[in-house]
Write a structure and sequence with these properties.
26 helices, single chain, flat, mainly alpha, 7% strand
Amino acid sequence: MAPPPPPPPTPPAVTHNIPLRPFRLPSHIGTTPEPRFDPVENLVLKAQAAFARGESNYNAGHLEMAKHEFNGAFTTILQAPPELREDKRLQKTFDTLVDRIHAYELEALKQGDGFAEPAYQPAPLDELQSLTVPENPPLSERIREQAAHTVSDIPLVINGQVANFIEYFTSGRGRSSVEFGLRSSGRFRDMILRVLEEEKVPLDLLYLAQAESAFKPRARSRAGALGIWQFMPSRGKEYGLDRNWWADERMNPEEATRAAARHLKDLYTQFGDWYLAMAGYNCGPVCVQRAVERTGYADFWQLSARRALPPETRNYIPIILALTFVGKNADKYGLNLVETEDPWVYDTVTVSHAVDLRLVAEIVGTSVETIRELNPSLLRMTTPNVPDYTLRIPLATREIFQKKIAIIPPEKRVWWRWHMVHYGETLSGIAQKYRTSVKAIAEVNNRDPEEPLQEAAELVIPVAPTGGSGNGEIRYQVRANDTLGSIARRYRVTSDQIIAWNQLKGTLIRRGMTLTILPSERETAAAPPSRRVVSSTARSAALSPSQSGKNTVAQTRSVTHRVQQGESLWQIASNYNISVAALRRSNSHLGDTLRVGERLTIPSTK
């Protein structure tokens, strides 16, 4: 046996002639630093994102959502920690947002009432269709005997499901909804029956509207259906119910009733059965057609038993049948004692220019709410800006409306107002209420401004498009350390006036909010014009004093000005219609630069 091979020789130890050191990159080659979190940049991005969402909603016509997002953009900045709010980037972003959002709101005001939309009411069908009602054969049998004597122009099948909805509506939680529907039906019943008859469809389809909305013109479902007949936007457009900035005709009771009658007639033509037609009204004709094709049954009860229709639709027909039965047997359940609302009666007028609904109400001597109730499809506080729009007004007021509206220039009807004088009122008080001037009211009404007002006298009130007076309305943005009292003193008004002008709930104000100030002529000349919105007359007077004659107001005594961020001596001097030299003479302490918060004496100009 051969001996094993010898082990390999051990390699010699490695020695280093040069000591090893840690490897370092040259100083001119830097590693990429980790991004540092910038809280200010983060707030700016959040505010800008909220603004972008608001802008998108605004362009899509979703004004309430736009307003919510715009407010969110402001809140993002206003709720930042104090040390961040002083950062110039955040201040610049805030100022930009104020200007851009204000521009959107002014545009909205030109076309209506800013971002205001009418209040909607929940559609009762949302809750009804989700109910699960148990079968009760003995009850069904008893009600079936009563139904034998009930006459209806749609088939009135009474089974266990229908009978239990009858029980729910007459003695359960649903009784109050039936009572509400019966009360509301008085307003629209005659109109609905007339239109259904004109369109040659069963009159008892009236109860479909009761199921859908309880006759609430501004009922809105969770899915976005609107009006008495709960049209979705696409279906409404198909039947001529337009919607735009000013109006949504799905909430026009008569137009929507006619559209619903025609849609139901088309569905009956397609299916040859009123139950399937009503089912198609609920879930869509394609849904019903597919259920019929899938099962081979063109019968609602067969489709319902096989669950070929959505659960909501399986409840929909029994709900309508139960309401029909209860409505025709109201005396048996003590519902005949429910007092119904007065029928919907009105005059109509055709307006060729946009008109403010407040002006309409003042002219005919009623409330704005009454005008809106008569015209539930209007979304804004003005009529649409179209050549011919039919407006409903209270009965027997057409002639007086036509006479009075003719007095007001067509292009002024979205701004000007009509006022009936009450005991003790003065021209100056009325001018302040409407944010206009005594002189303007006197000129438009051809009267002496010193002449006492007679009770019940009627005045046309010329309100400037900006909502400001001829003397100049000031928009003041609240700054750090401002109080209501300090702002009032600055503009020589009272805190109560600022509260009234801005509809504040108290004296609490916060930095960043914008206040409307309506000073007298003297204070307008002396006040710093930050964010001022003035009429064209006031603007020309400010720019060309020599040409404005008696409208030019001289400053009769010196005032104090507090330097704001970004202001220069030239800008301040120009604002107060004095020279830089005069400003320096009155403030010998001035150096080469201004300090924010520094107080300057503004010399008199007279």
